[in-house]
Amino acid sequence: MEQQLPALIPLSYLAFAALIPLVGLWKKRACYWLAVAGSLLATLFSTIGFFEYVNEEPLRYFFGGWEPPVGIEFVYDGLSSFFVLVINAVAFLVIYHSRVIGQSEFPRKTLPYYTLVMLGMLGFNGMILTGDLFNLYVFLEISSLSSYGLVAIGEKRAPYAAYRYLLIGTVGGTLYLLGIGFMYTITGTLNIIDMAAMIPQVIDSSVAVTGLLLMVLGMGIKAALFPIHGWLPDAYTYAASSSTALIAPVGTKVAAYVMIRIVLYLFGIPVIEANLWPFNLIIGTLAAAGILYGSIMAIGQTELKRMLAYSSVSQIGYIIMGFSLANPLGYVGALLHVLNHAVMKACLFLVAANLRLKEGHTDISRFDHTYRKKYPVTMLWFTVAAISMIGLPPLAGFFSKWYLAMGTIENNNWIFLAVILASSLLNAVYFFRILERVYMKNPEQPEADKGAVGRNEPGYSMLVPTAIFGIALFVIGFTNAYIVSTLMQFFPN
Amino acid sequence: MLEFIYAHYAYWFTLILLCIGLYGILMKRNLVKKLVGMTIFQASVILFFVSIASKWEASVPVKAYDLPTEVVANYMNPLPHTLMLTAIVVGVATQGVAFALIINIYRRYKTVDEQELLDKIQ
Are A291 and A230 in contact (CB under 8 A)? Predict the structure, then answer.
């Protein structure tokens, strides 16, 4: 059975995606529990796989027994097992959280919603595991199509946000496909491992360079790299709360993973540094610009979800900047930031969902000190996640920024270091603005009626996932030495 | 110069289609016309793949007795065609989702013109 693990992880989602519409027609409430079961199964498989294979040789799973380059394979190595574990664990908790908020935000759409969630996770897992560039495109489109659907389930403006996301996302996917075409014409293969062996012989050709640029551009659109991030704020703001909480930690990370795969594994650092020297610098500079832009825009927002969306633009910049440094420290910082950002952003978006359920809005200008009384637990975990985003020890966010900063110092890239530090200060500005409203009493505001402000927390099904993410930030922070030493082994050499 | 354009005419064709598609997506105000632009954009990449598979004086990649082609190089490459069958299916699915979204937008705002839509949203 263990040899089948790479296929079992996406298949558990596919099986439940087929099962939910069948059972859901007969018993509507079963959809939620089936979705929880499907994501739990996938999380278990990926946990077993991660601890079994993290120190082993990569497991290559050939579909139908056809060996590559003829057949399609799944490659289960350290990097992909890490990413699969992160996205599946986050998705499980977010789906578990979605029962009550789902009934209030999209009461009659639970069946299509959970089916789309399962299909989307199938696509994300497939993108991470596959060892074939065209197969990656197919999984990319599966995940994108379900993301468009998930974004469209939401507020009144959601379909228009989803339509814009669809147009821009399809352009990204198609550019990636064109890039594959260029790479195929010059190497004659689509398998990543096979192609990586041929890259040094063909890198002098402009076709290979164009192929690389097109693939990275296409994935940059999907990952919301700075100048091409326009779809993200609207899509995250107007989608239903639990859709955002699912797409924000998972979607852009997977696109960033594909960029890491293409740049560091398919082409490799020696080839890029010898033949395309400004390439990494350009990507890093765009990411650095995105970090500053996202943070500055986040300060100006009055809507919590929109602020978090701009913050996502800035955080994805850290990940891309980290791997563009092309040294082990930056690489580890980027991977650790994938984990941290997934946990932090999921926690923050779950808090936004809790507030939406109880207050009906997440307008920051209407936050006041009564929130401290009404939502003590929710606001506690919001504070923890916010401090982690700013990057104070011992919370997880500090350590990824630490390794990123060490990476920039190793490359003597002082501008990037300054960007990291400046962005931490900007993060502090936009989070403390909210914490101040919640924890400090506004002297100009009239005294509220004492009896009117009671505890108004959402139920345990929503508080427990929020709390688990918050506690995970402490756990990651304290065990970071172990995590980093594990991640360090994945660095390609 | 003329030789350069003439020798790569298939790629120039692809490039022109790509630009027309991108123009449609970016500049047209009507949401349906934007979708037409997106379709042209996808079609250009599909045609690019088909064009890289074709060869002069090569046969279809089917082993048949009345087509006596012994050397493998005399067959066309079938792989890009099969890839594009998948890509066409993906494109059709994307258009289906896009039309569903347009219908939804029209039901909520009674318009498919982007400028009017933005005015109504404000």
Answer: no
Burial A339-374, CB ≥16 within 10 A → b, else e: bbbbbbbbbbbbbbbbbbbbeeebebeebebbbbeb
Inter-axis angle of helices B31-53 and A158-187, to 10 degrees? 10
DSSP bridge pairs for B59: B75
* Nearest-angstrom CA–CA distance, A92 and A105: 19
CA A233 from centroid of its chain's CA atoms: 15
- Using an 8 Å CB-CB cutoff, list chain A residues near B109: 160
How confident is the model at residue B48, as a pLDDT?
92
User: What is the C-alpha to C-alpha distance for residues A408 and A414, in angstroms, rounded to an integer?
Assistant: 7
Smallest CA–CA distance, residue B90 to chain A, in Å, is 7
A152:B104 CB<8 A: yes
Instruction: Output the pLDDT for position A151.
Output: 92
Please identify every stretch of chain A with a pLDDT value under 50, giving residue numbers as ranges: none
Q: From A294, A354, A272, select the one nearest A94 (Cα to Cα).
A: A354
d(CA B39, CA B20): 10
- Whether residue A107 has a cis bond before it, omega within 30° of 0: no
| Model confidence at B96: pLDDT above 90 | yes
In the DSSP assignment, the letter for residue A474 is H
CB A20 within 8 A of CB A111: yes
A1 Cβ neighbours under 8 A, 6+ residues apart: A8
Please answer whether residues A311 and A296 qualify as being in contact, where contact means their C-beta atoms are separated by less than 8 angstroms: no
Angstrom distance (rounded) from CA A201 to CA A270: 13
Instruction: Count CB neighbours of A92 within 10 A.
Output: 23
Looking at residue A118, what is its pLDDT? 93
Mutate to test the interface with B, among A106, A165, A166, A231 (most CBs of B within 10 A): A166
Structure tokens belonging to residue A230: 């326009």
% chain B with pLDDT above 70? 95
The closest of A208, A393, A180 to B84, measured between CA atoms, is A180
DSSP B39-89: HHHHHHHHHHHHHHH--TT-B-S---TTS---SGGGBPP-HHHHHHHHHHH
**CA–CA distance from A21 to each of A32, A111, A126, A144 (Å)?**
11, 6, 22, 20
Report the C-alpha gap between A234 and A310 in whole angstroms.
Answer: 10
Interface ipTM: 0.93
